[in-house]
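TICKET: design request
STATUS: open
ATTACHED STRUCTURE:
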């Protein structure tokens, strides 16, 4: 079971900002931007965005739509959407999720430290 499955099951706490039948979103525990949210499908069937895109593109589109709504609600509506894909790209949780970064991002940055 992934840590995100435990959050969805309310077995560990999280600061949840959105929930539907298929998607949950909560604040990242280690924020790298003024607004840093994670948008996560409730299903744990997909480890990363390429698996999700092949199997259920409608669910991927729903994640993007939720990201847009959250960026409007929590910032000015503009946002950076990141899907780390693979350990060498920084992925640490293998339950597909989108990082939504917003709120005064460094201009031109791709989000490096
Ligand atoms: P990634 O490294 O792309 O797999 O992203 C995993 C993200 O999950 C990291 O940014 C972590 O800070 C975040 N994270 C890990 N555990 C928790 C948690 N319990 N609540 C909220 N975010 C978490």
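STATUS: resolved
RESOLUTION: sequence designed for all positions
ATTACHED SEQUENCE:
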């Amino acid at each position: 079971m992934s840590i995100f499955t435990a959050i969805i099951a309310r077995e560990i706490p999280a600061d949840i900002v959105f929930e539907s039948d298929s998607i949950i979103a909560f604040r990242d525990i280690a924020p790298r931007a003024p607004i840093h949210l994670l948008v996560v499908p409730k299903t744990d069937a997909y480890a990363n965005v390429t698996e999700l895109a092949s199997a259920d593109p409608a669910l991927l589109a729903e994640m993007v739509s939720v990201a847009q709504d959250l960026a409007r609600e929590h910032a000015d509506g503009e946002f950076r959407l990141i899907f780390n894909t693979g350990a060498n790209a920084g992925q640490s949780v293998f339950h597909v999720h989108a990082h939504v970064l917003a709120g005064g991002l460094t201009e031109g940055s791709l989000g490096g430290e």
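CLOSING REMARK: Strands lie at 16-19, 23-27, 35-41, 80-82, 98-102. The domain at 3-102 is CATH 3.30.428.10 (HIT family, subunit A).
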